[in-house]
Amino acid sequence: MEAQVRVVHAARLVPQGLHDADALSSAAVVRSRHLTGFRRVSIGSMKEFRMFDYLRRITRTVLLSLQALLLVGCSQASQPSVAVPGSVVSLAPPPGFAPAPNFSGFVSEDGRASILVAELPAETGAVVSELFADNATARERFASQGVQVERLERITSDGQTIPVVIGSQDAHGYTFGKWIALFSGSPTVMITIQAPRDHELTHKQAVRVLESVTRGAQPTLEQNVAALPFTVKAASPFRLLNTLAGSAVMFTAGKLDTDPQGRQPLVTVASMLSLPFDSDDVAEISDELIAGTVSIQGGTIVSRTNTHFAGIAGHRVDGLTPSGNRYRHYLAVWPSERFVRLVAILPADSPQEVLDAVDAMAASVQFRK
């Protein structure tokens, strides 16, 4: 199965250079799409999210890819092991790194580098592992996501042999060094470290971080939801499905948890602390994010309107996806550039009650104080 993993650290739901990363990455159990966007190079490149999306397609329901998180490296010594909120992972980040407020992982003080931790369903481990089978396979698969693989290495972490893809990616006028490691198990964990080539982070420091990884008890879905930077309430017929990288949550309507054909309605809410490009026009920002979101990019906009969303003035777009499904996209951008968006992808024949439920969920979205 072809997976579309977008290896973008930051969450890129946005425009060029950033789109890749943000693209609504699918998440774990359903053909879910991750939505988030990022504007600073530091937090990652949209292409990383694409990578995760690629993974998710690999399983056609695995999510991932989060380009969102770039790893910033610093001095020689590592900090004590730190638990990643909303994750089973603990690791020792380089000095100067702190837990990221808007995704599962760490970000450097200057925001130019990051460490992204993404969890995948255990059942997707075997499929995702194929990406790391050998140098030739890794180069081919990751190249489609804009990542140039230099080599594939194996390290030992927590008593397990871990494959690590080492390469680079061009985005926003910079070249980022990347270290992408896959930890098989339940759950399967993918960790991406990213930093500009001119950053202090060295290969040895990045490897040291990956070697420090340990996994503990898996947090409950409720705990993961509580760790999100925003709140949102499910409205019938939608039910909570999963969270992604501490910055997104997915809901579906229907019995299936895994829905590669997209037969069920899917709603994803995601936020980031920074925009992927400079603009004060919420409609323009919305269009850029849509253009960089898998499954709805290249579709047809049917209508748009300014509306209240996430406690402030926002923007809503209704449209048709290239495959003929419907989508509804809400966006709110705060003065600090922090933004949140909701993307609903719905079967063409979805009844009015489903659209009403989407609007009710949008009305419930609020940033945590």
Topology summary:
Blueprint (H helix, E strand, L loop, with lengths): L18 H4 L23 H13 L23 E2 L5 E3 L5 E3 L5 E4 L5 E7 L4 H5 L5 H9 L3 E11 L2 E12 L2 E10 L4 E9 L6 H9 L2 E2 L5 H6 L3 E2 L7 E6 L3 E5 L13 E7 L9 H10 L8 E10 L2 E9 L5 E8 L5 E8 L5 H13 L1 E2 L2
Antiparallel strand pairs: 1-2, 2-10, 3-4, 4-5, 5-9, 6-7, 7-8, 8-9, 11-19, 12-13, 13-14, 14-18, 15-16, 16-17, 17-18
Descriptive report:
By secondary structure, the protein is α+β, with helices and mostly antiparallel strands. It has 8 helices and 19 strands. The strands form 4 sheets. A 7-stranded antiparallel sheet has the order 3-4-5-9-8-7-6. A 7-stranded antiparallel sheet has the order 12-13-14-18-17-16-15, with helices on both faces. A 3-stranded antiparallel sheet has the order 1-2-10. The chain starts with 18 loop residues before the first helix and ends with a strand. 57% of the residues are buried.
